[in-house]
Amino acid sequence: MSNLSSTMKFKKTKRNSHGSIVESLPSDLLIEVLTRVASSSFTDLFNAKLSCRNFLEASKDTFVMKNISIEKFPTIPWWQVKDEVSSFLKACKESGNPEVLYRQGMMEFFSWKKVESGEEYLKRAMEMGHMEASYVYGIILLCKGGESNEEQGMKLLNAVKKSRKLGECRKRTRAFTLSMWIRNPIVKCQELTTCHAKTCGRRNNGGIGGKRGWPWIEDDEDKDVEEVNYCEACIWDDEVSLFCKLFR
Q1: What is the CB neighbour count within 10 angstroms for residue 238?
Q2: Which regions span the lipid bilayer (predicted)?
Q3: Is 13 a residue whose pLDDT tops 50?
Q4: pLDDT of 228 higher than 60
Q5: CA 104 to CA 114: how far, in whole Å?
Q6: Can you give the residue range of the structural domain that contains 58?
Q7: pTM attached to this predicted model
Q8: Across all residues in the chain, what is the average pLDDT?
Q9: Which of 192, 191, 180, 42 is nearest to 118 (CA)?
């Protein structure tokens, strides 16, 4: 009996010690820890929330919600989602979670025909460093035309190319568009650039879709586009054309 009492006392002391350690940590540190957990796994965050009250309270912080990973959530929940899931995603959006903003922007712009608000969501996600949002928003700016839009659009796309994630952005964007109803197909509003630069490799390639096709985009690999000696305008012109094919 005495041994059993000693064991129970030890376990109780151990639990109290664990609880007191967590309770002694400053809230800023708890939030930072949970943010790192949330950015890699929603499941791990959920388990942490169940472990103690302090983690539960810290998990409600805006910074945690802003950085939480929602990769395991379906891109577009066609079925009726539970109230708690809907509330969770709404909280993520209000906290400025870039992935949620990107998904909202894609749905509003391409499916719900809410062009202005959809573009704004994509822009917000882009400003927070979301790569697919930067890619799509850059394409949209090029399609809108105008010197300012084209300059900003090429700047965004160049940043994506520099990150070596251009191929990944294409694949993920394509997967997203295949999962939703397209009611607002993006259309390039200006004519394709006619390049007269003597040094541009496009002149010797038969133009867009010529003999060599799109050597840097056909296989979705992030190849060094400079090796084909195309000018910047031609490179992104072809990229826009490829993107628009998703909606035909």
Answers
A1: 23
A2: none
A3: no
A4: no
A5: 11
A6: 27-69+83-95
A7: 0.75
A8: 77
A9: 180
